[in-house]
Write a sequence for this structure.
């Protein structure tokens, strides 16, 4: 067994090393391809003749390769050579290479947009792959932009892919967006959505906006041809607790997939000047019932603070805006970390583990919603979701009594746990008010249990 | 007056996760018409089961909620003053930010 284990470890190491080499070589190829594309673009600018120099009278500027690659587009009477030529001359910026950005980028790369920019500061994680289909396992831990760019280049080496491996902020927004014709908002938070909208208004860029959560999606085009902008619709940001995140509420992978594809479609329409972009209208997807709803929106608001007649938004005022403060939501999508209980009312996961090991009498209440509890839970914990806590106090009393009787009448302690240590604090505060004054919460919740006690305990 | 109400974008969580409601509501005593303002206060009392502050602010909906009367933004029909008619469809949808 032991020698088998050593052999397996050696093979795994060799696989890892080969994979690293493979990634390295792929990166070199991508980088060289990008350089080559740039050279070709430059030489085309210097010498503006069509690449095709045969005898045919071919004045549409499409090379034989392009004609063949995009033939199914060229065959569409309503799209045709003109639509494709417009697309090849256009540039699209995709902000966010996640659930929406993944399918949007795949189609934008395939369809022959001239230049595509990708902005993201994040790295690929295993729990992204269920929906962020542009990334593969080999890129876990690596930059999303690097990963998405490599996939785009492997689909279409004739499209120029520009990597912006940075967070989108007021400080870099104007410079980045000014280089593109169309912007696709594929981000996942409210401050980014206001910031991207304002930046597009300042620079006069059409904005294809998509959003998805759970089993619902929304799509519209802002700031297009005199139509409304995001602020015309939502002048005041929603309360913080109304903004659910995929990391908390979940999302069925294919739902952002559908919306991301539709964002690519709208971007293609805007860039190729074909069709009627979804401006002044919104498409709502309810995946559970299989319904799309196409609704008519208000027009541009004359009172809008971004694009209205008396709007004071300029490059300078944009730079001075604090979007995190405005929406009271952080730009980074990291989870909320509350810390309002007194240290005496809290214990660490390690301390709790010591109590369990010593066999100390206690009751552990897990206050997560039941569908979370079903994913994974600690042994001997009782699930009482926070929302039902007040009505289920007798269960806790009974459990404490039973536990104390086991220890011949000594008092049993009461501990509360949740996913990350936020709701457990809310629960402990409530329990204190309701007479359970010794209740303590486990700092950092089950995530801390995984990090500090049992690395094999699943996280989600 | 029969109306269909629909909640989406997470607002259904405020009414026992039921998205579609067929309701019967009449103008208040002394009023001839039912406006969106009347309907909102009726919904708050009769349909919303928890956290009403996540649905309303003052006498209107909270920021970030889109109201659609027969698939049209209520800004185009008079907002709170929109007069409802038999079999109208009213949608309350919270804007999503996820991606």
């Amino acid at each position: 067994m032991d020698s088998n284990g050593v052999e397996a470890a050696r093979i795994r190491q060799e696989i890892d090393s080969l994979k690293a080499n493979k990634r390295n070589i792929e990166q070199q190829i991508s980088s060289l391809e990008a350089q080559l594309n740039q050279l070709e673009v430059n030489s085309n600018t210097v010498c503006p003749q069509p690449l095709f120099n045969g005898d045919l009278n071919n004045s549409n500027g499409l090379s034989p390769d392009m004609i063949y690659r995009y033939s199914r587009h060229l065959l569409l009477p309503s799209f045709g050579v003109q639509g494709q030529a417009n697309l090849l001359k256009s540039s699209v910026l995709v902000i966010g290479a996640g659930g929406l950005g993944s399918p949007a980028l795949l189609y934008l790369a395939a369809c022959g947009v001239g230049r595509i920019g990708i902005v993201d500061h994040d790295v690929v994680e295993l729990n992204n792959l269920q929906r962020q289909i542009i990334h593969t396992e080999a890129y876990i831990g690596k930059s999303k932009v690097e990963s998405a760019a490599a996939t785009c280049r492997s689909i279409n080496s004739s499209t120029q892919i520009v990597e912006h491996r940075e967070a989108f902020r007021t400080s870099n927004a104007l410079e980045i967006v000014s280089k593109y014709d169309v912007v696709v908002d594929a981000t996942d938070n409210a401050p980014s959505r206001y910031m991207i909208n304002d930046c597009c208004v300042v620079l006069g860029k059409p904005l294809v906006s998509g959003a998805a959560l759970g089993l619902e999606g929304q799509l519209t085009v802002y700031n297009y041809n005199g139509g409304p902008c995001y602020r015309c619709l939502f002048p005041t940001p929603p309360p913080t607790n109304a903004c659910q995140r995929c990391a908390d509420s979940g999302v069925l992978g294919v739902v952002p997939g559908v919306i991301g594809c539709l964002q690519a479609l709208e971007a293609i329409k805007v860039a190729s000047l074909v069709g009627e972009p979804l401006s002044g209208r919104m498409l709502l997807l309810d995946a559970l019932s299989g319904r799309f709803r196409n609704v008519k929106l208000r027009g541009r608001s004359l009172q809008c603070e971004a694009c209205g007649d008396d709007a004071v938004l300029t490059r300078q005022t944009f730079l001075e805006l604090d979007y995190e403060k405005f929406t009271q939501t952080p730009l980074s999508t990291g989870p909320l970390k509350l810390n309002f209980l007194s240290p005496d009312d809290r214990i660490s996961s390690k301390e709790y583990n010591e109590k369990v090991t010593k066999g100390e009498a206690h009751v552990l209440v897990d206050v997560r919603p039941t569908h979370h509890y079903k994913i994974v839970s600690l042994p001997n914990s009782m699930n009482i979701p926070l929302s039902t806590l007040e009505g289920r106090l007798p269960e806790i009393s009974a459990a404490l009594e039973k536990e104390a009787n086991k220890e011949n009448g000594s008092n049993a302690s009461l501990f509360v746990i949740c996913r990350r240590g936020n709701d457990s604090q809310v629960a402990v505060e409530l329990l204190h008010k309701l007479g359970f004054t010794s209740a303590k919460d486990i700092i950092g919740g089950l995530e801390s249990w995984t990090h500090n006690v049992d690395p094999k305990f699943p996280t989600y | 007056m029969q109306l269909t109400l629909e909640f989406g974008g997470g607002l259904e969580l405020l009414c026992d996760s039921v998205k579609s409601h067929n309701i019967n509501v009449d103008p208040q005593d002394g009023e001839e018409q039912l406006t969106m303002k009347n309907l909102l206060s009726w919904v708050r009392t009769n349909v919303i089961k928890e956290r009403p502050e996540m649905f309303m602010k003052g006498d209107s909906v909270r920021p970030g909620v889109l109201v659609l009367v027969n698939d049209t933004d209520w800004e185009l029909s008079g907002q709170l003053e929109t007069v409802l008619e038999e079999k109208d469809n009213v949608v309350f949808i919270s804007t999503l930010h996820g991606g």
User: Anything to note?
Assistant: DSSP finds 18 helices and 13 strands in chain A. The longest helix of chain A spans residues 2-46. The longest strand of chain A covers residues 207-213.
